[in-house]
Every structure is written in C-alpha cells, then in structure tokens.
Write a structure and sequence with these properties.
Elements (H helix, E strand, L loop, with lengths): L1 H29 L2 E9 L6 H7 L7 E2 L1 H16 L4 E11 L2 E10 L3 E9 L4 H7 L5 E12 L4 E10 L1 E10 L8 E12 L1 E7 L2 E6 L6 E15 L2 E14 L1 H6 L10 E14 L10 E11 L10 E12 L4 E12 L30 E20 L6 H4 E18 L13 E12 L3 E10 L4 E7 L7
Parallel strand pairs: 1-4
Antiparallel strand pairs: 1-2, 3-4, 5-6, 6-7, 7-8, 8-9, 9-12, 10-11, 12-13, 13-14, 14-15, 15-16, 16-17, 17-18, 18-19, 19-20, 20-21, 21-22
Length: about 475
C-alpha cells in the first residue's frame, strides 16, 4: 500500500504546482505593469519621433502582458508599413513589476540612384506579347527615401528613348509638432512619340510619330495630407494640367479632347480618404482597407470642361486556417459628368485590369472591378543571409511563397461599343498562380488564367494581386 500513497502524494504535488504556475500566468495576463522604458537599437538614420508615432504604447502606460503582446504585434506591423525597415524585432522584459521594451531595427538602403530601362506598355504581359523593343525607355532615376531621417521622399527622374519624361517629386509627411499634417509637390512633364487615339477590337490603336511628339503633358501638383489617427489618412490635391496633341491625332479622333480641340489647360482639385488597417500594404494577409476619392477637372480657370469622378475601394483580408488566406477587393468608379471624350474615359486595362484579359482595354464612363484570391502558404516568411554581400541592408533577405486561386470580374458602362465586345458586358476570369514575396517590397507572380471568351495563357506580373488605386 506504500506505492499507491506515494503515487497519490505525487499527483497532489503535481496538480498543486501546475495550479500555481497557471495561476501565475493568469495573474500576469490580467495584472497591469508599468512601461518604464523603450529603447531603440539600429535606427542610425530614422528620427525617434517618427518611430514613436507608429507605436501603440509609450512609457508610463499601464498594460497587462496579454495587452502588451497584442500592442507589440500591431506596432511591428505599423513600423514595417512605413517602408523604412527590412526587419523589426520587439522584445520586452519584466523586472520588478516594470516593463523594459527593446526595439531593434534593420534599416533599409534609402538612396537609389540607378539607370532606368523600362517598357512603355500598360503591363509586363502586354510588353512580353508585343516584344516591341523599340518601346523601351532609358534614363536615370534618383530616389531618396527617408530623406534627412524624417520619412521625406525625394524623386528625380529623366527618361529618354521611346518617351521623354522629367519628374521632380518631394513629400514631407509631417510639418507640425503632432506629426499629423504633411505637404508635397509634384512636377511631371511627359512627351510621347506614340499615343493611343482610339479603342478598336478592344485594343488600343496607336499613332507613332518618329520626328515629333504625338502628345505633350505637363502636370504640376501641390498637395496636403492629414493623418489624425494611425490608420486614417486624408489628402487634398490641387493640380494644374496642360495637355496638347499633334494635329495628326485629331484627324484620327476629333473627340480626343473637347470640341475638336488640340490642347486643353485646366485646374483640378481632389480629395482622398484612406482607412488602411491591413497587416501589410505590400502583400496583405489580414486586415481591412476602405478608400474613397472625389476629383473635379476644370474649375472655371482656363476651362470648365472636365470630369467629376467618384472612386471607392473596399478590401478585406482574413485568415481561414493556419495556411489559408482570403483576399476580397472591389473598385468602383463613377463619372458624374458623362463627358464622352477619349482622354477622360480610361477604364479597365490601364491601372487596373482583369487577370486573363491583360491585352484588353476598355474606355467608358463608369466601371467596376472585383478580385477574389484564395491563398495557400507554401513557404512562410523565411530569412537567410547572403554572406558574400558586405552590407546587412542587402545581405539579410526574407521571402515567402504562396499558391493563389483567383477569380476576377468587371463591367464597363461605355459608349465605345463599335468594334468593341467587352464594353457593357459582364466580364470574368479565373485561374491559379504562384506569388513570391521578398524584401524591398518585391512581389513576383506567375499566373495561368482563363477568361470568359475561353482564352487562356500564362502571365507574368510584378506587385500583389490586389486593387491599389
């Protein structure tokens, strides 16, 4: 009978000890602790005030351990979404009922002077299909992110070749003490030797002039931003535009602008509202985004003509299981003026397209696009070092791989129905693809798509399979 007594004693001690441990963990999860200090490590360039702006906690806060771990997770997402860091690691220690937080950063490379060699097509798949190597631009692009360590952006671009383009862009996100108000300036002068003048058989028809420019575009913008909360952004933009076309374009389409004009000059004013609580702006897996914009071209100065355009984007991302994720996004655009001019009627196939219909273009008054993605995580985010690269800004690499099953749909309300089949038609496509996500915001996609017309093929894309603007 001695053995059962010892066994019983052991079970009692075991249960009591586990009860004490559980009780301690439970107490830690509900007990509040004082955040005594927050230490930053590795931010050699980035200003500390900017970092504090993205944190959901601060020194002096009273938080439980469970609350702190949730705040740390969201704060890490916020810091990575600034595009200033490749890696962010946040750890905490509990000492004498006080919390010490250490945040370690791996800053990115911020100064990018590099030669430009880019195609002039609407997307990579169109360029690979046409393989017109004369439609290549070359030049120099200088991009400075996190200028002066304050998240300022400076861009200088000079492009020659198929098109000429000169860009000067500067944005300062915070000009006030509370880091809420920002301002920016954008100068863009674009000269095209070749421009689309009409849509025929759902494809753009181009006019190419070798000895002169077919179109010249000057846009000068001044904009303000307001960020009252971490996930809410407002933008007010005032833009001056001057666009001229060669008379040869006007001969082919006298409705390119208004009233058979070869040049238009106008002011525009626009407002954007963006609520973005996604875990990643590059390749989101969780979170919601709601975007709304209103833009009026033609304010009575130089011209009253122009569009009044409303646009909205709704996107939802959520995790189904440990490996499966769903992305749903819808873009809708409504033109209230219904001005049936070629220049002001871009719809599907320009900035946003239906997968499997990359070669198609449709102009119209209003349109919508929806995208649905079911993703399976083949390889979770994995890190490795390229030891032969001396700088840790490039030697530390991360990547992830996803299998993506997708379905797209869209509709264009259009008067361009002659010799065009996709206008005023419900459009859809589906397919499967593989997405490679790696550092410096690069997403490489290979997709097999089948559209409503029975056309299918393999397409290559850069960027996440989501609606962006």
């Amino acid at each position: 009978m001695l053995f059962p007594k010892r066994l019983l004693l052991f079970l009692v001690i075991y249960l009591l000890s586990n009860g004490v441990v559980y009780s301690q963990k439970f107490n830690d999860s509900i007990k509040s602790y004082y955040i005594e200090e927050i230490n930053f490590i590795g931010n050699k360039i980035t200003n500390e005030k900017l970092i504090h702006r993205e944190l959901l906690f601060k020194t002096g806060d009273l938080v439980s351990i469970s609350e702190l771990e949730l705040l740390i997770s969201k704060s890490k997402e916020n810091l990575l979404n600034t595009f200033l860091f490749n890696f962010v690691t946040i750890k905490y220690a509990l000492i004498d009922d006080k919390i010490s937080v250490n945040i370690e950063f791996q800053e990115r490379w911020y100064i990018w002077p590099y030669p430009v060699l880019e195609h002039a097509d609407r997307n990579l798949s169109s360029f690979l299909k046409n393989q017109e190597w004369s439609r290549v631009d070359y030049g120099l692009f200088v991009l400075i992110n996190n200028f002066r360590g304050r998240k300022e952006i400076l861009k200088l671009k000079s492009i020659f070749g198929y098109n000429n383009r000169y860009v000067l862009y500067y944005y300062k996100p915070f000009i006030d003490k509370d880091q809420r108000i920002g301002l920016g300036f954008d100068f863009d002068y674009f000269q095209n030797h070749e421009v689309p003048y009409q849509i025929i058989n759902d494809k753009p028809e181009y006019l190419k002039l070798t000895d002169k420019f077919a179109r010249k575009t000057l846009k000068i913008s001044h904009f303000y931003t307001y960020r009252p909360r971490l996930y809410t952004n407002h933008l007010l933009n005032l833009r001056f535009s001057k666009v001229s076309i060669n008379d040869s374009v006007l001969v082919l389409n006298n409705n390119y602008f208004f009233n058979n004009e070869s040049e238009i000059t106008f002011f525009s004013i626009g407002y954007n509202f963006d609520f973005d609580k996604r875990d990643s702006k590059i390749y989101p897996l969780n979170g919601f985004r709601g975007f709304f914009s209103i833009n009026k071209d033609g304010l009575g100065i130089y011209s009253n003509n122009g569009n009044l355009v409303l646009k909205s984007i709704v996107e939802e991302n959520y995790q189904l299981t440990n490996k499966f994720f769903v992305n749903l996004s819808v873009l809708g655009q409504l033109n209230l003026n219904n001005l049936n001019t070629f220049y002001f009627s871009e719809a599907i196939g320009y900035f946003n397209y239906i997968r499997g219909m990359e070669y198609y273009v449709s102009n119209g008054k209003s349109f919508y696009i929806s995208k649905t993605n079911l993703k399976y995580e083949i390889i979770p985010q994995t890190r490795f070092n390229l030891n032969f690269i001396p700088s840790d800004k490039f030697s530390k690499v991360h990547y992830a791989l996803y299998l993506n099953l997708f379905f797209d749909s869209g509709y264009v309300d259009s008067d361009y129905t002659i010799n065009n089949t996709i206008t005023n038609e419900f459009l859809y496509s589906g397919g499967i693809g593989v997405d490679l996500v790696t550092y410096y915001d690069k997403v490489l996609r290979i997709e097999y798509s089948l559209n409503k017309f029975g056309e299918h093929g393999i397409f290559f894309h850069l960027g996440a399979p989501i609606i962006e603007k």
